[in-house]
Specification:
The protein is built from 4 helices and no strands. By secondary structure, the chain is mostly helical. It has one domain. GO terms for molecular function: transmembrane transporter activity. One of its GO terms (cellular component) is plasma membrane.
Length: 109
């Protein structure tokens, strides 16, 4: 269950990062509200997941989901540039998350 909560927390990180971009520096009301609500929910779920998962693993997976997801959201929703180096960087983050998950399997998490 902790892994599911951590995944949802990571997805909410993508939501708040994208909404923050859309808020135009917190000058637009609804994107600002979405940012704050999603941020609080993301932090809350992360804290619950950390009750049974290691700190380093939890945080790394949460940040990785958010980073790669925000990268994709930036391309799809905000027209940001995509090039081979940016894709490779995102791929390295994904590999790092997979390795972290595999390394935590022997710890009871």
């Amino acid at each position: 269950m902790a892994w599911i909560l951590l995944g949802i927390a990571g997805l909410l990180e993508i939501v708040w990062a994208s909404a923050m971009k859309s808020s135009n520096g917190f000058t637009l009301f609804w994107p600002s509200v979405v940012t704050v609500v999603a941020m609080l929910a993301s932090f809350g779920l992360l804290s619950v997941a950390m009750r049974s998962l290691p700190l380093g693993t939890s945080y790394m997976i949460w940040v990785g989901i958010g980073a790669v997801g925000a990268f994709v959201a930036g391309i799809v929703l905000h027209g940001e540039a995509v090039n081979p180096l940016r894709i490779a960087a995102a791929g390295l983050i994904i590999v790092g998350m997979a390795l972290m998950k595999l390394s935590s399997q022997g710890t009871g998490a």
